[in-house]
Write a structure and sequence with these properties.
alpha+beta
């Protein structure tokens, strides 16, 4: 069985899932996970009640880090573009003062310990300082 990396996102409100394929770089949907995977993330990592996944059609955001910047700058730049699309989507989705939570892990590793935690403010994006790896928890505030 092929392992898949899941980028979970927790919100304080429900979103309408895409009912058809779009060309958008990033969507909020259900991608790889089952409800039981999402429930583990909700209980172990999130305070938000509604759990979805981020569908990254470009390059995965978990490769936007110092290692990729050094050894694969091309992939780093592609991941940065995907992350900026996600931030743009969230800027329009999250009410002012609200936040969402993101946790990235391999499918089946939802109950494992976080290896890193970040807090990001959409109104003061320090993009070059952001390092995202797997098992990273990110609180994104608007």
């Amino acid at each position: 069985m092929k392992m898949s990396m899941a980028t979970y996102i927790g919100l304080n409100f429900t979103v309408k899932l895409n009912e058809y394929y779009t060309e958008d770089e990033v969507e909020i949907d259900y991608v790889f996970s089952k409800e039981k995977n999402r429930n583990v993330v909700k209980q172990k990592h999130f305070t938000t009640p509604y759990i979805y996944e981020v569908s990254e059609k470009g390059h995965p955001i978990w490769e936007m880090n110092e290692y990729q910047k050094t050894y694969s700058p091309h992939n780093y730049e592609k991941s940065k573009i995907t992350f900026l699309y996600l931030c743009h989507l969230l800027k329009g989705l999250l009410p002012q003062g609200d936040f969402c939570e993101v946790f990235i892990c391999w499918l089946g590793e939802e109950d494992e310990k976080r290896e890193d935690e970040l807090k990001i403010n959409l109104n003061d994006l320090q993009i070059e300082a952001i390092d995202i790896y797997e098992k990273c928890f990110i609180r994104i505030e608007n």
